[in-house]
Every structure is written in C-alpha cells, then in structure tokens.
C-alpha cells in the first residue's frame, strides 16, 4: 500500500496489465486471455545445506508459466531479494519474449534467495547442486521439459554445476547437456552466449535506427554514432551492451549507474576500463576520468539520447517517470519500467523498446545452444572448410578469367568460411531485426497502438493464442 492507501502493483500485476492492453486491442476472447496469463505451475523448495558446520535452510522457486511449447525456458537468478511474485512475473515475460522472437519454447523462471557474495566458491557449488537436485527430482529441470539459463547472480559456472548434477542423476539421457543453457563452451556451451543478451540489445538499437521515421518521432537523428547514453547496471547484460555501443558504434556512454553510485563523463566513459576497475576494486568509487556521485538512481534522470536500464526491475516508477529526460528508453533488464511509469512515459511521448523484445538475445542464443546440444555437433563444423574451398575456387576462376588479382576485400569475404561465432551472431542479428520489423508492422496496423510495448505484446499473444487454438484448447 502507498501512503495514500492505494494498492501498489506487484511485478506480476504490471506484466499482466501490459498484456491486457494487447488483449484489448485484439478484442481477444476473455477465456483465452486468462489461459495465456495464468502461470501453469510454481514450485517452492526449502532445503538445508551444511555451511561452515552450521545448517542453513535456503528457499528457491521455479515457475512454469506456459507449456504450449516445450521445453519451458528461462533463467535462474540468485539474489537476496527474490520472491514468488517476481519469479512468476519473469516466467510470464519469458512466454511473451519467446513468442516475439519465434523461439519455440514456453516460459519459465527460477530464483534462489541468497546473497552469492556471502559464500565461498565451494559453498556456492554445494548450494547450487542441491537446488538443482530439488528441481530435477520434482520434474522442473530436464532437456525436454524445463531448461534454465543464467540470470542475475548466475553465469557459466552455475550452469556447469547444474548440467553436471543432471548428468549424474540421469546417466541414460544422451541429451543431458541440453538440460541447461549458458554453459561454458568446453561443457557443451555455445560461443557467443555470454555476450548474447547485451549484443541483442545493440542489434535492437541498430534496427531501430534503420527506421528514419521512428527515429524522427523519438526526436533523434542519424545512427547510434555520437548518441549520449546512460546505462544502469554493468553486469553481464549492461557490460556487453555498453561495450559494443562504445567500441563498435561510436556512441558516448556518458553515465554508468551501479549499486554504489554513478560515474558521469560528458565526453564518454571507456566501458572496458570501468569494468576492469570494478573487477579490481569491487566498486566504481574512485574511478579516474569521471565524476562520481553517490545517488546513482538520480542519474537515471540525466538528459540523454538513450537510457538503458540493465540492472533489475522497477527502476523507473511513478516516482521518477515524470523526471526522465531520455529521448528513448531501451529495457535491457526485465521489468525496469513499472506499469504506472509506462503510462506516464507513454503520455509524455517517450518511446520504450520493451524488455520482452530488447533483451531476447539471451534466449535466442540459448535456443541455438539447445539445438547444438541435441544435435551433438558444433555449428559450422561440416561446412566451414567446404565453403572456404569453394571461395578459393571462385577467386581462382575469376583471376584466370580477368587476368587480374582479386581485391583483398573480396578474398577476405570469400575465402573465410563461417565459424560457430559468426553463425550465432548472424542468427541473433537476423532474429532481432525480424522481430523489430514485426513489432513495427503491428504498431502501424492498429490505430489504438502508439507504443512498441503494446505492439510487441500484440505480436506475441497473437502467436500464443494461435497455438492454443490449434491444439484445441479452445
Ligand atoms: P548481473 O547480476 O550480471 O548484473 C546486474 C548488474 O546490475 C550488476 O553489476 C549489479 O551490481 C547492478 N545492479 C544491481 N542493482 C542495481 C541498482 N539498484 N542500481 C544500479 N545497478 C544495480 O545480471 P544480468 O544477467 O546482467 O541481468 C540484468 C538484468 O537483465 C536482469 O533484469 C535480468 O533479468 C535481465 N536479463 C538477463 C539476461 C542474461 O542473459 N543474463 C537475459 C535477459 C534478461
């Protein structure tokens, strides 16, 4: 409740209300809308682990929001603030997200209530493996039904422990590696997964800038180059997004907001230097070449071209939405803008590229990893050398026909066959481009839609309802 006695919306309420806008636009049958919004099942586990001679009891959740496509897919977060509502909301977002980017999965999400920094590596391994056993035994983790991935507070390390736990409990499952994605490459992971969500955010921004009328409507001009960007959260997603924008797109990262404050530099921060500094000093405080301010959240209100919240949910709320001065918001995190804030920003005409699309790069490359695990072969292994030989033959034939040496640029393009990373990046780029174009088409098809979020939800619920109808639920 707020001081005025008004009920504050939960994360789940927020996601449901955003989906409701799309159901209204589509005039969708109430029953189908209810079926789509409902969380299919939720597991809560409590398990003891002996830490430093003392028994501690941990609480975790795994929500399966939808199973119209299997497996259900979604990250596991380890955080000191996580609860059932949050996990359910994130699972619902996964359902919508997978449909938007045409990844044939249902939606799921998991969370473990823990401060990962309070435990040693071996202790984290013990806790993670025990949590994984709970999920496996209760039918919430397998390559066929439910496949986790990294999220806040988890990464390759945790995914490797989970995969190994599954393998030991299921020695006959030849597809065991597909029980989780985001694994280290040496353990069945795919090249490019770690950077995938951040890279996907950048591909989304690049595609936005390819549509001059949308760019103009946002009060922007040109491309990413020179754009002044504020980013919140320099973790997995934020770091790769900011690094690529800084190094490949010549954008200016004018502020980085972290847990312990913000760094501001109008001339642009060197993202790699900031990250190295954080790795060494465990804080952003004291970083040279920037002004440090303790009130990080206030820097969300800086005047800028693009604001990228990449930390956690509910960062832009009814409290600060009126003061946001960005021309465009790109939701790299899940749920960073609450429903109330979204209403205010819509009214103010500040466009938002929504989470369910913007950060879908992670699940897209997870899908590639899962396919790689089921097919037991790395992408590009069969054809790379063949393509190279063919390229060499083409160049040789051209040189013989013309009597001239082929230009360098042609040789480079034709003689090098695509490796796994090339293919993953190309598949990710294609996915992000096509999805934005579909969202844009939906935005332009309905008079009632004037924002990307509602358009994205329309694309998504249209596809999901189709699959419900096709399998005869309605
Ligand atoms: P992470 O734990 O790697 O990074 C989060 C970063 O945000 C950390 O650097 C942390 O210090 C910072 N942070 C936390 N609270 C903050 C606050 N209040 N203010 C400023 N900074 C704060 O997590 P991540 O994997 O990068 O995930 C970030 C967001 O992206 C989450 O919402 C997550 O659900 C979403 N997401 C992640 C992935 C993925 O592949 N990892 C995929 C899709 C969506």
Explained architecture:
By secondary structure, the protein is of the alpha/beta class. Among the domains are: 11-185, Leucine Dehydrogenase, chain A, domain 1 (Rossmann fold); 219-350, NAD(P)-binding Rossmann-like Domain (Rossmann fold), CATH 3.40.50. The chain is 45% helix and 16% strand. It contains 16 helices and twelve strands. The protein has helices at residues 11-26, 30-37, 84-100, 121-137, 156-169, 196-209, 212-217, 236-247, 271-281, 339-347, 355-358, 361-375, 384-402, 408-415, 420-445, 452-470, and strands at 41-51, 54-64, 72-79, 106-113, 146-150, 228-232, 252-258, 261-264, 291-293, 304-309, 326-330, 352-353. A seven-stranded mixed beta sheet has the order 9-8-7-6-10-11-12. Helix 3 links the parallel strand 3 and strand 4. Helix 6 crosses helix 8. The longest helix is centred in the C-terminal third of the chain and has 26 residues, at 420-445. The radius of gyration is 23 Å and the shape is globular. The chain starts with 10 loop residues before the first helix and ends with a helix.
